[in-house]
């Protein structure tokens, strides 16, 4: 009989407490029982174009010190062969922080979290990340870190996307008219020298990044004092919370960097669901219009949440199942306000938690987080473009807007 991992359904019973999770994390079994059903685990598969990313994710969680494992799902059974990789992990039936703020009828949540309650949940998460996770593995800065983490990241992402778009647009079958139009819009965004986004004139991202790279003073300020054991993708979508217990959370889907990362990247991942609208983009709570007529590319983004809306969301029941279920999501107008308030309060909360930490003397973390935020939106995984070209267009346009704002804010420091 395998270990009984009682992460119970929050519609009927309370999930494990933090203490129970910590005890359970010390045991690994290939036979897992969840909610009284054998084998109720997830099989996570890597992308064929980058199976090593999943291996790094697995090794990040598996190699955590014993005292930190409670904050992540258990993982086991890593398998790699050729361009495939997969592992098994506990299924934790709790809502993400994004679902708790924006609502999700399928999770039977009592109510949506307002900004105050969301920040109450974020405080222990940040305390864990800053005081426990980050300092669990500290590395000296490497000379090429900034280039790898920012400049090469953008360059590689754009090269991959342009190649993907060229292949898709050249295909005679399998691409409908709407998808072709979105892909052409995205290519235009990548190649345009200037873009008007929501009335703001934005320069091409590559041009701004090149100016940053050419400034020794900016590069010095953008280079973190040291590298930490960062999660790498600490967005609202990757934090599972127990709405009844702020100290009981689970972090999922880490994206670690080899040799360590900038702690500001984790802060950026928490900031840009609000400021960059990422929490709304990934849930299709937006409209985007692109005008390619005339000599200037214009993009208008409408982030929902200002007015009540009923949104029909569709989900696959499971890979290969062929089934789809639908969920009507009601936006009552409070969600956008909550995200805006969180984005205003979060930097103050981060500063407070950094006090007394190893990174207390780091005075450029916000500057770095804001740049990571903008570059991340301009360098989304290829999967986002494959799954929703419209979302990729909105994210890149918002990234251009944030990058332009960053340059206007910090360019005098050159």
Explain the overall architecture.
The protein has 414 residues and is α+β, with helices and mostly antiparallel strands. 43% of the residues lie in helices and 19% in strands. It has 14 helices and 16 strands. It has helices spanning 18-24, 51-62, 97-102, 115-133, 145-170, 177-191, 205-213, 216-222, 263-275, 278-281, 335-354, 365-378, 382-387, 389-410, and strands spanning 3-4, 32-34, 37-38, 41-45, 75-81, 84-90, 139-140, 194-197, 200-203, 226-227, 239-242, 245-251, 286-291, 297-303, 309-316, 324-331. A 4-stranded mixed sheet has the order 9-8-14-13. It has a 3-stranded mixed sheet with strand order 1-2-3, with no helix packed on it.
Q: Distance between the terminal alpha carbons, to the nearest Å?
A: 63 Å
Provide the spatial order of strands within the biggest beta sheet: 9-8-14-13
Average predicted local confidence, pLDDT: 84
Number of strands: 16
Overall 3D form: globular
Order of helices and strands: EHEEEHEEHHEHHEEHHEEEHHEEEEHHHH
Structural class, judged by helices and strands? Answer: alpha+beta
Count of discrete alpha- or pi-helical segments spanning 4 or more residues: 14
Rounded to the nearest angstrom, the radius of gyration is 21 Å
Share in β-strands: 15-25%
Biggest sheet statistics = 4 strands, mixed
Helix content: 40-55%
């Amino acid at each position: 009989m395998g270990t009984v991992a009682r992460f119970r359904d929050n519609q009927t019973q309370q999930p494990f407490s933090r203490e129970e999770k910590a005890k359970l994390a010390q045991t690994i079994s290939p036979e897992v029982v969840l909610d009284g059903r054998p084998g109720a685990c997830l099989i996570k598969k890597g992308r064929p174009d980058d199976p090593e990313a999943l291996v790094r994710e697995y090794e990040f969680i598996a190699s955590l010190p014993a005292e930190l494992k409670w904050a992540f799902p258990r993982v086991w059974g890593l398998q790699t062969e050729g361009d495939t990789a997969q592992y098994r992990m506990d299924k934790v039936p709790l809502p993400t922080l994004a679902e708790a703020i924006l609502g999700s009828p399928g999770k039977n949540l009592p109510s949506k979290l307002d900004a105050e309650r969301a920040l109450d949940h974020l405080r222990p998460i940040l305390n864990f990340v800053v005081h426990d996770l980050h300092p669990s593995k500290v590395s000296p800065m490497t000379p090429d870190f900034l280039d790898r983490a920012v400049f090469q990241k953008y360059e590689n992402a754009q090269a991959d996307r342009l190649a993907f778009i060229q292949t898709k647009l050249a295909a005679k079958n399998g691409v409908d008219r709407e998808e072709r139009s979105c892909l052409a819009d995205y290519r235009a965004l990548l190649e345009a020298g200037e873009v008007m986004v929501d009335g703001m004139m934005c320069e091409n991202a590559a041009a701004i990044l090149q100016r940053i790279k050419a400034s020794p003073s900016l590069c010095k300020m953008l280079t973190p004092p040291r590298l930490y054991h960062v999660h790498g993708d600490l967005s609202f979508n990757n934090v599972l919370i127990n709405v009844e217990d702020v100290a009981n959370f689970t972090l999922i889907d880490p994206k670690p960097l080899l040799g360590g990362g900038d702690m500001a990247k984790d802060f950026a991942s928490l900031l840009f669901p609000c400021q960059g609208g990422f929490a709304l983009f990934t849930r299709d709570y937006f409209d985007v219009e692109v005008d390619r007529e005339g000599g200037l590319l214009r993009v208008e983004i409408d982030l929902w949440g200002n007015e009540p809306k009923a949104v029909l969301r569709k989900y696959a029941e499971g890979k290969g199942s062929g089934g789809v279920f639908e969920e009507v999501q009601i936006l009552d107008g409070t969600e956008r306000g909550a995200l805006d308030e969180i984005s205003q309060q979060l930097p103050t909360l981060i500063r407070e938690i950094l006090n007394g930490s190893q990174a207390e003397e780091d005075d450029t973390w916000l500057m770095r987080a804001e740049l990571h935020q903008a570059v991340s939106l301009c360098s989304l995984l290829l999967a986002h473009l494959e799954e929703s070209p419209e979302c990729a267009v909105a994210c890149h346009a918002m990234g251009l807007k944030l990058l332009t704002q960053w340059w206007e804010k910090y360019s005098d420091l050159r």
